[in-house]
Amino acid sequence: MKRLSMICLFLLVWAGTMFAQTLKSPDGNLTLQFRLSAEGTPGYSLQYKGKDVIKESKLGFSVRPDYQFDRNFTVTDTQTSESNTTWKPVWGQYSEIRDHHNELFIAMKQNGTGWLLNLRFRLFNDGLGFRYEFPVQKELRHFTVNEEETEFRLTGDHKAFWLPGDYDTNEYPTTTSKLSEVASLIDSVRQEPLAIRSATPNLAVQSPLMLKSAEGLYINIHEAALVNYPAMQLNLDDKGFVLSTHLTPDRNGTKAYVQTGSVTPWRTIVVSDDARDILASSLILNLNEPCKLADTSWIHPTKYVGVWWEYFTGQGSTWAYTDTQDIVIGKTDYTKLKPNGHHGANTAHVKEYIDFASKHGFDAVLVEGWNEGWEDNYAYSKEFIYDFDKPYPDFDVAELQRYAQEKGVKIIMHHETTSSVADYERQMHDAFRFMNKYGYDAVKTGYVGGIIPRSEHHDGQWMVNHYLRVAQTAAQYKIMVNSHEAVRPTGLCRTYPNWIAQESARGTEFESFKGNRPDHTTILPFTRLMGGPMDYTPGIFEGDLSQYGSNQAKLSTTLVKQLALYVTMYSPLQMAADLYQSYEKHLDAFQFIKDVAVDWDNTYILEAEPGDYITIARKAKGKNEWYIGGITDENAREAVIDLSFLPEGKKYEATIYADGKKADWRTNPQDYVISTKKVSSKTVLKQRLAPSGGVAISIKEL
Asked: Which cofactors are named for this entry (predicted)?
């Protein structure tokens, strides 16, 4: 009887499966199972240390006009391989990155159509990446995608850190809730006043999505190498706890236009039972192609100040040169218009920032509002908004180039498009030639408002191609790109390291709108920063904006937490974002911003829990200097800082920037104390962090 039962069980499994194969991670902790069902539908599952992470989930596509490209497949070939290499990024959190993975390749043919579809899985010690590949074939060349059918079947009602699904913005505040609670919360979250919103028609959230299971597993779902394909939202079945791919469409409803010979982005699942491993992961970078630039010597991490924050403080400074609204680009003669008297980007004022940058060792000065067009920058209704090579009459570009060069400082260009992308593409080469002529080697681009061409969304296929085209074109002119309001990053900074940073999330500017919560920056490294560095623009010392004028906003952090963000919010492009006068009042605390590196040899995640706290240490590139940043949410806590990462047998001096005894983000944010202490690799520091406070430490070898 027992033998008969085993035979029946075998036949049952065989009847439900046409093909199955298993792949292990190099350390054996992760197990991928690929399965082709009896109906010929491909699927996969993922386990970590014997625990289910993703239950069996289907793969495939629905393509136009109305055909299911997710069933009736037969496996025609399989291949497995192992790769264990290292590579050196141009800049980054590590001077060397290990790429160690096992790979499973599956080739399939659909019965009836004869269409071919391949799947490639890469299993690392920290997670899984997989993508679809469309080989060149006789029966299929061009097709459009109704939907990608990729599923992520979760094991339960996980705690989630989520943004509402949206085709045009990722600037919502992060909401923390159970997956089952998303539906009851999402409508109120979508009331957030933003420049543009285009909600998904069904219940969906954005990637990167950070999850924590009741069993203590940390799971991050995102994508890598987003090229010529729309960004991924995630449909949510909040009863069965199933996520499925929801590609950003154009306004005609088409998701993607595909030609065979291409591949999709990688779908990524980073998983661990230790939250620190999520932040330490290089999986997304490893899934991107190596650097495609032959010469990268001109790419350099940058620390900068700029004419920017004053536009948000309420003191009256403006991007616009005049108050005249009836502007026609190419026709309006600005020399005949009356200046409004409060234009921030004027020659004398920019020189003040150049002087400050030079005195304190900063690399560059960002200037916003330098070019014609800001008076009538009306999004979506107006196509010709700016000239990108015509400065305002009070911005002497040649004199400022001379002055900055004399002071050893660069000026960072600003190209706000107000999402008239069609016009920016027409002007892009002229704009970059203008930058070359006047010594600019970096540009901050912006995409506020609805996209022109008017059939497109920020996260659709056409715009995904545009952002990359800007980076590629800029590289021809040896220009670095920092894109704001763009699609969230997916590790392409490895392939194009001149794409040095992005905003693509809710940055510091929202502090001036009373818009960031104390837990905000304890979440972003687990979500937005998984795909690449963020130009978060920290360093605001004067947190009470009522000091300046009409704005009544107050910062959601202590001053010391602002220092710590230079370490916890990774970017090779870091701004000291406050007015320079604020730093002159606190030069002792400002010293940390002056000292802290922007490029690193190594990174050590010391403590981490998404939404609660993060403590990170980093070694400066090419120096025996280490910097530590620790932050907490609205709850005070004690950070335990183990310095065992320091080389043994040597002595060091630590300068500790700490919250004062009475520090509190609500009542006393500027209370801080600075002390020094001799430390070694055996030292364990215990430091109190105030509510929404932090600690910043610089360590130098004696």
From this structure: Ca(2+)
What tokens were used for 395? 């911005």
d(CA 327, CA 395): 18
What is the mean predicted confidence (pLDDT) over 686-694? 98
Question: Quick one: average pLDDT of 559-564?
Answer: 98
Distances, alpha carbon 519 to alpha carbons 163, 543, 602, 635, in Å: 14, 17, 26, 9
List of long-range contacts for 132-138, beta carbons under 8 Å, 24+ apart: 132/59, 132/61, 132/263, 132/264, 133/262, 133/263, 133/264, 134/258, 134/259, 134/260, 134/261, 134/262, 134/263, 135/107, 135/260, 135/261, 136/260, 136/261, 137/260, 138/114
Q: 504 Cβ partners below 8 Å, 6+ apart?
A: 170, 483, 484, 485, 486, 487, 488, 489, 528, 534
What is the spatial distance between Cα 329 and Cα 386, in angstroms, rounded to a whole number?
6
Q: How far from 49 is each of 25, 151, 156, 389, CA to CA, in Å?
A: 11, 22, 17, 57
Structure letter (DSSP) for residue 350:
H
The rounded distance, in Å, linking the Cα atoms of 626 and 603 is 9
Question: Does 464 have pLDDT greater than 90?
Answer: yes
Q: At which residue do the structure tokens 């990524």 appear?
A: 268
Chain length of the chain:
702
Contacts within 8 Å (CB) and 24+ apart, 174-180: 174/506, 174/519, 174/520, 174/523, 174/524, 174/527, 176/519, 176/523, 176/611, 179/154, 179/211, 179/236, 179/238, 179/241, 180/238, 180/239, 180/241
Judged against a pLDDT cut of 70, whether residue 647 lies above it is answered with yes
pLDDT-based confidence at 16, cuts 50/70/90? low
pTM summary value: 0.96
The number of angstroms, rounded, from the C-alpha of 502 to the middle of its chain's C-alpha atoms is: 6
For residues 505 and 170, is the Cβ–Cβ distance under 8 A?
yes
Tell whether the model's pLDDT for residue 2 goes beyond 90.
Answer: no
Catalytic residues: 509
261: phi > 0 → left, psi -120 to 50 → alpha, else beta; which?
left
Distance CA 270, CA 287 (A): 12
- Which residues are bridge partners to 613 per DSSP? 609, 632
Residue type for 7, please?
A: I
The stretch 341-348 carries a mean pLDDT of 98
- Whether the CB-CB separation of 46 and 271 falls below 8 Å is answered with yes
* Longest CA pairwise span in the chain (Å): 99
Residues 6+ apart with CB under 8 A from 643: 617, 679, 680, 681, 682, 683, 684, 685, 699
| Peptide bond preceding 65 in cis form (omega within 30 of 0) | yes
Can you read off the two tokens belonging to residue 493?
């900074």
Question: Hey, how many other C-beta atoms are within 10 angstroms of the C-beta on 584?
Answer: 12
What CA–CA distance (Å, rounded) separates 565 from 580?
18
Cα separation, 318 vs 307, in Å, equals 10
DSSP letters along 402-463, please?
A: HHHHHHT-EEEEEEE-TTBHHHHHHHHHHHHHHHHHTT--EEEEE--SS-BSTT--TTSHHH
d(CA 431, CA 477): 10
Calculate the alpha carbon distances from 335 to 339, 447, 595 in Å: 9, 28, 43
User: On the CB side of 395, how many CA atoms lie within 13 Å of its CA?
Assistant: 23
